[in-house]
Structures are given as structure tokens and as C-alpha cells.
Specification:
The complex is a heterodimer of chains A (292) and B (678). Chain A contains 11 helices and no strands. Chain A is mainly α. Chain B is an alpha/beta fold and 678 residues long. In chain B, the strands form 4 sheets. In chain B, strands 17-18-19-14-20-21-23-22 form an 8-stranded mixed β-sheet, with helices on both faces. In chain B, helix 4 crosses helix 5, helix 5 packs across helix 7 and helix 20 runs parallel beside helix 21. Classes of the chains: A mainly alpha (292), B alpha/beta (678).
């Protein structure tokens, strides 16, 4: 027998999806994000040139029919490198976000539930971390442990989970004050069952929306690291790195930076728009106006 | 005749729905307010009464707009005025008193300053005289020592006092028209009666017109001269308050009056079938067609107009009103008879239960000693028999919900014992109770929006107790759930809906079904009907009564609504400040309220009859904490004997009718005093 509850829930999910795509922000945002993801996956198959092939004869060619975005200072095709430039960034930040949501959500819900001294101590530690400028901390980690993806994913995940702790904790506080939690307690359900069945489904939405917002921030952070030379190492194509390399030549070879800048900002805008539409579809309105 | 202060002509207000259709909330409203007149607007949630009241001051909520018609104040249309012009009228000519004064006062400014702001805006009084005016206003709303009050912050006042300050602020501009949106809904019974009395006096003294919006016909009856009954965005009845309430000519108003439990009549009120139409629904004929017992094809296809029947002082929107005027308005109550003859088994006994929220001092904790200070609930002794409905009544802060929570094991008792079925002592912590003890006691909460998990379907909600207590699964679980739905008069089609897809009444039915799923011995009902509309409330009460008769369940019913308690309970326990004042069979308690507090409480109840005025004997005051010694009601009691009341805890006395009271005055003397006063 097909579980009717799941059908009801899928229906709810489809309602949310329809609601997301019926908003201009959701439609545009998700289209951009999906396009970026598709390009990141299939780019090795469709790019016209080798991304690392250096050719001193065709350095800094302006856009033409042959090289539609021109070439960079080493004669590499900018179009090829731009298409492939999001691969590492998306991979690192996607898994980084998952880690951030997982640990941030867990610690936030835990603190919200236990309260008292433990909550106080954990939250003060989180506050202390929030006070450290993330870029300095990241640089320190990268200098000590290297710039491999195995280091970057957990490091970014850790730094961007702190904000999620706060959101998850606040959402937990809201939910545990409600009567259905008290009703479950009075019925005598176990703590685990109360957390799993009653609390989590209601905290999930807020945490997911926050996670989506963090993703865009993390993307920017990762690109900044690359820009400073601490992210992806050459010759792997990466937008941050490309912008950094082309920066000095910007006054006469603008094309080598325009493409990665547009690519990076469109992805960030796309994620932000999607997160907003997602929040609205779930009924979490972050842009409520005062009734004046 | 009296002049019209405001005229509303063919007003329709609505919004654009998602698919671009125009949906109207108010449909073609035409009425007027006379000078010095108090008009009550009554209707259930969603009837458009608040939208109408806001339109009267030229305000439409965000997203709404005026479709047609106008709202004329001094022959100027408020609805197309500029904001600048409206500012001059609002507060000065038309003032509004909101529902929740606590939220509408700015918390960080002193009361006096907030009133002064209004005075600065809307009068030309100079600074020196302004202080005098503030004192005068606060005196007018009968706040004690107005000069000191003006220096207080809103949180230092009680709910009733805050409402009085809101009234004083509204009066500051000496408006011609006062709009009141459910001004007494959040208040205690006695406070509400006092505030209404104040409003009546103000109306008389200042000759201000008032529009009183409420769902409570009792309050409307006390203050209004004229009453407008609204249903689905239309005026269905508009006329003199006495005539409307004594012989309502519209079937909706008739049903509404019938569904209100009344103090004077025992038993359950009649419920109105059906639900109001959806906003999006396109209604060609009468909006009440679907729920009306007189409905014919004529009602379905053509809309009745508002007109004045012969020899009547009201306008009515119904083709068949004559059928109603023939049918004498006679409430039809099915009285429930308590099975008195049968020997009843005791299922629950509270033995000297005391509860406190304050932490005990370390010294007391170390010595394992019970400190007598700041006890929220003290020495409660109640016996509950099988199949009975026991009601706990009292005003806010009387500890009634606290007692329920401790029976459910959600709050630790500090002293005393909760005995279940004579020989089992229930642990005061829910975690230490056995599965069968947990099953035996179930809770229903006040607000079903809060008590049902929004991310679960009805099937999941109902399966939880079944899985937990009976380990049901598969087809058996499904069968049982459908069976439960039928018991609460819902169909199988509700199984996979989410709570937000249900109406308020349906949600509460699901909550009731969830409690009954455990086959409990005792169900604790915490204000289960106060979040519901009157007609829905009657249906839920009826359902609870039917289920009790079928299953032999015992209810412990907490409510602040004394008429509801009268309708459903067999025994009543009256609480004041966490101390029991009176306990006895409800018929006796309501007939001979012997304890002074019960008398005060019952005197303040508002009945939907303008000739039954509330009796206000005690001072309207909220006490912060109960007195440490003596009678708990000492400081408000109208019958204080003397020193004894302040120093000695009063003894229990049992009257010949079977109700027990805790008072120093001899019970016979109390009777004598009461009857001689009447």
C-alpha cells in the first residue's frame, strides 16, 4: 500500500515548489542556480579548448569569433576557464554548507533544548568565534593545513555553521514553547520521539533557509580566498583566481576579468533570490514591512 | 430626529485574489451612526466586523481596497481622503480603542506622557493645563490616584487598568465617535463588567457616539442601543437591541442567540449546523442559505434585501422572517441529568495539593523543608468521581491551569498527593508514570492551532497515541483512526489533511479525537472552547457531552466562562488566588452562590439581555500575590467580618444543599444577607 501520508507530504512539497517558481525571484534565482550546476557538471565535455594549455602566441586576445571571451595573459581561453571555474567553488561550498547545516543545526537544537548553563557556555564560545574575523582565521588554517579541498570544506563548514547555531536555537525555542510539544510530553513520548517527530519538522524549514543564505556567503568567502591566493592553486580554473590574475591587466584587457565576475555574481545573486523565494514559499517572511 | 454622525453608503471592501479575481470582504454595507448612539456590531470571526470598524475611521488593512461605496463623516468621504486630512480627524473626531491595550501602549513611556502626546496633537491646551487635563482624564476612567498613575509605565498596571488608560487616551481628543474593537475580550469577567459600566457612563456623560465591535452578545447587550448582526460580510439584521435580542428575526441571529450558554438555564445550548461560506465563494442568493432551516429555491437564487418588517424596529435581510416572528424565541436546551442515584467510584483525588513556581531557598532545600512563602496553589482538595464533569473556575491567576498541569504531571507538586482510583498515587513527574497511568489521563488544550503539530497530517496526529499506548499498526491502526474521526463527526476525507487545511472547530475536534484515542479515564480540558466562535463552541460542547455519555469518561474542565461551565459541569470548584473557595454540585452553586467570591463572580457575568445588568459588588483590582495569612479573598471581599478574616484561615462549611464553602461567615447568615439585599 502506498503511504497516503507521504503523498500528502509530496503534495505539500509540490505546492512549495510551485509557490517558489510562481514568484519572479524564485523563477529567476533557481534558473540561474540550476544552469550553473548543469554547466559545472558537463563543462569538461563541452568546452572548446584545454583549460591549461598555454600558448604565448595568442596572449590577451580580445573577444573574437575564435575566442568568444578572449584569452588571458598566458593565452588560455577565458570562455573555457569561466565555464569550468565554478566546479571547485560549487563542490567545496556545497559540501561546506551541508557540514555547516549539520553541525550548526545539531548544536543549535541541542542548546535550545537543554538550556541553562550548558547553553550559556556553548553560546558564549560561539560568540567568541563570531568575534574573530573569519578571513584571518581561514588564512591561519590554510597556512597550517594547506589548501586542499579536504581542508577547505570542513574549515568553511565550521565557520559558516556558527550563524546556523543561532537560528536553529531560536527556532527551537519558538517550537518547544508550543502546546503540541507539551501534549506529546503529557502523553509520555520519549525525548527522542518528541525531538524527531514534533520538533525537527518544525525547525527544519528555518534551518534550511538559513543554510541556503550561508551557501552564497560561503561562495563569496571561497572566491575571496582564491583571490588572495589561498584557495585553488593554479592552473585549476577558478573565478576568484581568474579575477586576481587578470586584475592588473584590467585597464586594457578587461575581458579576462568580466566573464568570471559576471559568473560569480550571477551565481551569488541566484542563490540569494532562490533562498528568498524559498523562505517566502515556506511562510518565513524575512522582509516584512512595518504597517506604516 | 437625532442627526447622523456617520453614514456608510453601499460600501464594499475587498482584495484581489491570487488568480486575479475580486473577492469582497464587505458586501454593499449601508448603515449610519446617530449622535450619542451606541451601536454594537456582532458577528463571528471572518464576518467582516473589524474591517467595517476600521473603514469607519478611513482605514483599510494592507492589501484591501475599497471596491465601491463611501463612508461619510460630516459629509466628507473618509475613504478617499489624503493621509494628512485623515490625521486631523483620527484621534480628534474619531478615536479607536483597541482590543489589547497592553500591546497598544508604548512600554517605555509613562502613561501620563502618552496621554499628553494625544493632547498635544489634538488640542490647544497649554503645558500647564495639560497636566490637569491628564489627571482629569484618568479620574474620568476611574483609575485610583490619577496623579501617581500618570507616572507609571504600562507594565505596572493590570489588564483592566491598561484598558482604562486606552479609553482615557481615546477620550483625550474629546472625539465625536469612539470605535471599540473587542475592548474587553482579553479581560476577566469582573474586570470586563467594570469596564463596560465605565463605557456606559462615558456614553451618557459625554454624548459620544460609540461603535462597539464584539463577538460577545452579552457585552453588546450591556452597552448598545442598536445592534448590527453581520454574516459573511453582509448586514443581516440591524435594529433596536431589545427587540433584536428578544425576538431575532433573522435565522442566523436566532441560531447565534440559541448557541450561547446562559447562566439562567442549565444544560447545553443548541448548536448551529454548518460553517460560514468561504470568501472566494460566489453567492448568488442569501449568504445564509446553506445553514438555514427555512431555505428554499428562492433563497438560493435571489438575494433578499434589507428591509423593515411591519411594526418592527429593525431591518432584516430574510424572506421568511415572519416564520421566525411566529416561532416564539424559546431556547431549546437538552438538559443533561447527572446520574445521581448510582454509586459513583472515585477516580481522582487531590489531597492537599500545593504548587509553587518560585524556587525554594537553599536552606529550605537542604533541610528538605517546605516553605510556606509564595505558594501559587495551596491545599487543594478535590474528589472526582467516575463519569462526572468537574469544572474549575476562577479569574486569571487563580491557578486553575496550574492544577491541570500538575494532574497531567507537567508541573511538580510541592506538597500533597494526587491519588488515582483510590490506591494509586500518581507521581508528579510525567516521566515516572507507567504507560497505563499516562494513558488514563489525557489533555485537550485551549488553542488547537498550538496543540496540533502543523507539519503532521491528521492521520499522523491521531496515530501517535494509538501507536504509543496500544502498539497498533497497519490496517488496524487505519481502522481505529477512521473510527475516531467518525466519533468526532468527521469523515474519512480528513485523514490526510494538515491542520492548516481545517477550520477552527474541525481542529478542535481532531484534538478531542486525539485525547479519546487513548481511551482515557480522565480528560483534562483547558479552556477548550475559548478560542472558538460561539456557534462552533456549542457544537464542540455537545460533542464532548455525547462522547462522555458513550464512553463514561470523566472531565476536569477549566474555564473562565461561567455560562459554559454551567452548561457542561456536574460539580464546580471556585478558585481564587490558588485557594479553593467553594466546591459543590453546579446546580446548587449557581442557584445559591454562597461564598462571597462566587457571588461576585456570578454577578459580573454578562447575559445577552439588556435588562439583566451585572451586579458589581467587589472592587475591580488584581492582587499580585495571595495574602500569607487569613482568607484569600480578604482584600476584595464585600462582606468582610472583621479581624478574623485577615488573620485566620477560614474553615470549611457545608450547606444543606451540598456545597462546601470556605468562609468565616456562617453559611446561613450568608444566605440571609444575600436574600435581604435582593
Amino acid at each position: 500500500m502506498v503511504n497516503q501520508n507521504q503523498i500528502s507530504k509530496l503534495k505539500r512539497l509540490s505546492e512549495i515548489i510551485i509557490s517558489i517558481f510562481s514568484r519572479p525571484s524564485g523563477m529567476i534565482g533557481f534558473s540561474i542556480v540550476i544552469l550553473h550546476i548543469i554547466i559545472a557538471i558537463i563543462s569538461p565535455l563541452i568546452v572548446p579548448y584545454d583549460y591549461k594549455e598555454i600558448n604565448s602566441l595568442i596572449m590577451l586576445r580580445p573577444p573574437s569569433e575564435e575566442f568568444i571571451f578572449g584569452t588571458d595573459q598566458l593565452g588560455r581561453d577565458v570562455f573555457t576557464r569561466t565555464l569550468m571555474g565554478g566546479r571547485v567553488a560549487l563542490l567545496v561550498t556545497f559540501f561546506g554548507t551541508l557540514i555547516a547545516v549539520a553541525w550548526g543545526g545539531f548544536v543549535g537544537i541541542f542548546c535550545g533544548l537543554v538550556g541553562g548553563k550548558i547553553d550559556d557556555i556553548v553560546m558564549r564560545i560561539i560568540d567568541a568565534f563570531l568575534a574573530i574575523p573569519w578571513i584571518l582565521a581561514m588564512l591561519l588554517i590554510v597556512v597550517i593545513l594547506g589548501t586542499s579541498t579536504e581542508v577547505l570544506i570542513p574549515a568553511l563548514g565550521f565557520f559558516y555553521g556558527k550563524g546556523i547555531v543561532r537560528v536553529a536555537r531560536a527556532a527551537t525555542h519558538d517550537v518547544i514553547a508550543r502546546d503540541f510539544i507539551m501534549a506529546a510530553k503529557a502523553r509520555g513520548h520519549s525525548n527522542f520521539s518528541i525531538i524527531w517527530n514534533e520538533l525537527l519538522p518544525n525547525v527544519r524549514d528555518a534551518v534550511m533557509v538559513e543554510g541556503a543564505m550561508r551557501w552564497s556567503w560561503m561562495l563569496l568567502a571561497f572566491s575571496s580566498l582564491s583571490f588572495l591566493g589561498f584557495g585553488v592553486s593554479p592552473p585549476t580554473p577558478d573565478w576568484g583566481l581568474m579575477i586576481s590574475e587578470g586584475r592588473g591587466l584590467m585597464s586594457f584587457a578587461y575581458w579576462s576579468v568580466i566573464a568570471p565576475i559576471v559568473a560569480l555574481s550571477s551565481l551569488i545573486i541566484g542563490i540569494n533570490l532562490s533562498a528568498d523565494a524559498f523562505a517566502k514559499a515556506l511562510g518565513i517572511d524575512r522582509t516584512q514591512k512595518a504597517p506604516v | 430626529m437625532s442627526d447622523k454622525i456617520q453614514t456608510i453608503e453601499n460600501l464594499s471592501i475587498g482584495f484581489k485574489s491570487q488568480n486575479g479575481r475580486e473577492v469582497s470582504i464587505l458586501k454593499d454595507i449601508s448603515t449610519h451612526i446617530n449622535k450619542g448612539e451606541t451601536v454594537g456590531i456582532v458577528g463571528e470571526s471572518g464576518s467582516g466586523k473589524s474591517t467595517l470598524a476600521l473603514a469607519m475611521m478611513g482605514y483599510t488593512k494592507q492589501g484591501l481596497y475599497t471596491i465601491s461605496g463611501q463612508c461619510l463623516f460630516k459629509s466628507k468621504n473618509l475613504l478617499n481622503m489624503t493621509d494628512r486630512d485623515l490625521e486631523k480627524i483620527r484621534g480628534k473626531e474619531i478615536a479607536m480603542i483597541p482590543q489589547n491595550a497592553g500591546q497598544s501602549l508604548t512600554p517605555n513611556l509613562k502613561i501620563g506622557y502618552q496621554i499628553e502626546e494625544t493632547l498635544k496633537l489634538h488640542s490647544t491646551i497649554n503645558t500647564k493645563d495639560r497636566q490637569l487635563k491628564i489627571t482629569e482624564l484618568l479620574y474620568k476612567v476611574r483609575l485610583p490616584s490619577p496623579n501617581i498613575m500618570a507616572q507609571r509605565y504600562p507594565h505596572e498596571l493590570s489588564g483592566g487598568q491598561q484598558q482604562r488608560v486606552a479609553i482615557a487616551m481615546a477620550l483625550a481628543g474629546s472625539p465625536k465617535l469612539l470605535l471599540l474593537d473587542e475592548p474587553t475580550t482579553g479581560l476577566d469577567v469582573t474586570t470586563q463588567a467594570h469596564v463596560l459600566e465605565l463605557l456606559n457612563e462615558i456614553a451618557k456623560d459625554t454624548d459620544t457616539s460609540m461603535v462597539y465591535v464584539s463577538h460577545d452578545l452579552g457585552a453588546i447587550a450591556q452597552v448598545s442601543d442598536r445592534v448590527i448582526v453581520m454574516y459573511a460580510g453582509e448586514i443581516v439584521l440591524d435594529g433596536d437591541v431589545r427587540e433584536v435580542l428578544s425576538s431575532p428575526l433573522h435565522p442566523y441571529a436566532y441560531g447565534l442567540l440559541n448557541s450561547i450558554p446562559k447562566l439562567s438555564l442549565p444544560g447545553l445550548p443548541e448548536a448551529m449546523p454548518g460553517t460560514p461560506p468561504q470568501l472566494e465563494q460566489n453567492i448568488k442568493g442569501c449568504c445564509f442559505f446553506e445553514r438555514c432551516e427555512f431555505a428554499t429555491d428562492k433563497c438560493k437564487n435571489s438575494k433578499p434585501e434589507l428591509f423593515i418588517p411591519k411594526n418592527k424596529k429593525m431591518k432584516v435581510r430574510c424572506f421568511w422572517h415572519s416564520k421566525l416572528s411566529d416561532k416564539q424565541y424559546k431556547p431549546n436546551y437538552d438538559t443533561h441529568s447527572a446520574n445521581k442515584t448510582k454509586k459513583l467510584d472515585e477516580v481522582l483525588k487531590l489531597d492537599k495539593v500545593s504548587i509553587t513556581y518560585t524556587k525554594q531557598s537553599i536552606l529550605d532545600q537542604l533541610l528538605n523543608r517546605f516553605s510556606e512563602k509564595n505558594i501559587t496553589v495551596k491545599d487543594i482538595e478535590i474528589e472526582v468521581n467516575k463519569g462526572e464533569t468537574i469544572a474549575l473556575v476562577g479569574e486569571s491567576g487563580s491557578g486553575k491551569s496550574t492544577i491541570l498541569k500538575s494532574i497531567a504531571g507537567l508541573l511538580n507538586t510541592k506538597n500533597g498527593a494526587i491519588n488515582f482510583k483510590k490506591n494509586i498515587t500518581l507521581s508528579s513527574d510525567v516521566r515516572n508514570r507507567t504507560n497505563s497511568q499516562l494513558r488514563a489521563i489525557q489533555l485537550i488544550f485551549q488553542n488547537p492551532d498550538e496543540s496540533l503539530n502543523p507539519s503532521h497530517t491528521v492521520q499522523e496526529i491521531l496515530s501517535q497515541p494509538l501507536k504509543l499506548y496500544f502498539q497498533l499498526s497497519g490496517d488496524k491502526l487505519e481502522e481505529k483512526i477512521i473510527d475516531l474521526l467518525k466519533k468526532v463527526r468527521l469523515t474519512e476525507s480528513y485523514l490526510y489533511r494538515f491542520p492548516r487545511q481545517l477550520s477552527g472547530g474541525e481542529k478542535q475536534r481532531i484534538a478531542v479525537a486525539r485525547a479519546f484515542a487513548a481511551k482515557p479515564d480522565i480528560i483534562l480540558c483547558d479552556e477548550v472552547t475559548s478560542a472558538l466562535d460561539v456557534s462552533v463552541q456549542a457544537a464542540v460542547l455537545k460533542l464532548l457531552q455525547d462522547l462522555k455519555n458513550d464512553m463514561g469518561t470523566t472531565y476536569i474542565f477549566v474555564s473562565h466562562d461561567l455560562a459554559v461551565v454551567r452548561a457542561i459541569s456536574d460539580k464546580v470548584a471556585v478558585l481564587y488566588q490558588g485557594r479553593l473557595c467553594e466546591f459543590g454540585p453546579s446546580s446548587e452553586v449557581y442557584k445559591f452562590p454562597s461564598h462571597p467570591y462566587t457571588e461576585v463572580l456570578l454577578g459580573a457575568v454578562l447575559e445577552p439581555d439588556p435588562d439583566l445588568k451585572p451586579v458589581l459588588t467587589a472592587e475591580d483590582r488584581v492582587e499580585e500575590s495571595p495574602p500569607e495569612i487569613g482568607c484569600s479573598f480578604q482584600s476584595r471581599c464585600p462582606r468582610v467580618l472583621g479581624k478574623k478574616c485577615f488573620t485566620e484561615t477560614p474553615p470549611w462549611q457545608i450547606s444543606k444543599n451540598g456545597n462546601a464553602i470556605r468562609c468565616h461567615i456562617k453559611i446561613e447568615n450568608l444566605f440571609k444577607q444575600q436574600t435581604s439585599e435582593n
